[in-house]
Design a protein that fits this description.
By secondary structure, the protein is of the alpha/beta class. It has a single domain (5-255), classed as Alpha-Beta Barrel (TIM Barrel). It contains 12 helices and 8 strands. The protein has helices at 16-29, 47-53, 80-83, 95-100, 105-117, 130-134, 138-150, 155-160, 179-198, 200-205, 216-223, 240-255, and strands spanning 5-9, 37-41, 60-63, 89-92, 121-126, 162-165, 207-211, 230-233. The chain has an 8-stranded parallel beta barrel, surrounded by 6 helices. Strand 7 (207-211), helix 11 and strand 8 form a beta-alpha-beta unit. Helix 5 (105-117) packs across helix 7 (138-150) and helix 7 (138-150) crosses helix 9 (179-198). Bound molecules: phosphoenolpyruvate. Phosphoenolpyruvate binds next to strand 8.
Length: 256
């Protein structure tokens, strides 16, 4: 059985002291829900302090990006190797990175390879734009992104990583995909592509998250979808109580 995950992407929000306070609040409020993986992804500068403050907690840490090279002349960048020991996860290929920082399927693939080599678990994002959705291109586009991300990876590597389907039109808009739409793409496109490339056992073992305007009010329905194993949460993860509520609801859905 795939363990559910609630991963909070804090994006470029929270100062070091605010991030520390939020991380501690989340650790306290979610302590009773061990059947859910709780992952928070603060900005790079917050990671060491938050890690230190969470040292006795089951909350896991993730970064929001990494570079594909181990070290070198890449001003402003942080390598996966530098993140090793500090975080367990790293978000790769978020649509904001693709849109504002020129990330491509090739660079996403290179970053995944670097993250895996450093012992990190990539949370690999994919998802179509509103125009692509309206043009009926969702399946081919998302499947292409998954294929591009996984180039050259072994079956073992693929089942160790996490895929996140995040339709761009649902991110930060309050317009979540319906639970059924989200479940369909996570199952019939994302997981189906993994199955086509690596077989049913690998597809069955790989966690697939949904992301896009999830909140306490819609998470139960989303988590009831058989092919959705959790959520990548933006806005609602910046509030300790709403994130904790989503963890609680997920815990209940899985315990039922
Ligand atoms: C995200 O940016 O990954 C995201 C899903 O954001 P939100 O939950 O705010 O839509």
């Amino acid at each position: 059985m795939r363990k559910p995950m609630m991963a909070g992407n804090w994006k470029m929000n929270k100062s070091v002291s605010e991030a520390t306070a939020l991380a501690k609040e989340i650790a306290e409020l979610t302590s009773g829900y061990a059947n859910v993986d709780r992952v928070i992804c603060p900005a790079f500068i917050c990671l060491p302090v938050v890690q230190w403050n969470l040292k006795d907690s089951p909350i896991q840490l993730g970064a929001q990006n990494c570079h594909w090279e181990e070290s070198g002349a890449f001003t402003g960048e942080v390598s996966a190797a530098m993140l090793a020991g500090l975080v367990d996860y790293v978000i790769i290929g978020h649509s904001e990175r693709r849109q504002f920082f020129g990330e491509t399927d090739e660079s996403v693939n290179a970053k995944i390879v670097a993250a895996l080599a450093a012992g990190l678990t990539p949370i690999v994002c994919c998802g179509e734009s509103l125009e692509q959705n309206q043009a009926g291109e969702t399946q081919s586009f998302v499947s292409g992104q998954v294929r591009g991300a996984l180039v050259g990876l072994s079956a073992e590597q693929v089942q160790s990583l996490v895929l996140a389907y995040e339709p761009i039109w649902a991110i930060g808009t309050g317009l979540a995909a319906t639970a059924q739409q989200a479940g369909d793409i996570c199952g019939k496109v994302v997981r189906a592509t993994v199955q086509e490339l690596y077989g049913a056992a690998v597809a069955g073992a790989t966690r697939v998250l949904y992301g896009g305007s999830t909140k306490p009010g819609n998470i139960a329905e989303i988590m009831q979808q058989a092919d959705i194993d959790g959520a990548l949460i933006g806005g609602a993860a910046l509030d300790g109580k709403s994130y904790a509520e989503m963890v609680r609801i997920t815990s209940e859905v899985y315990a039922a």
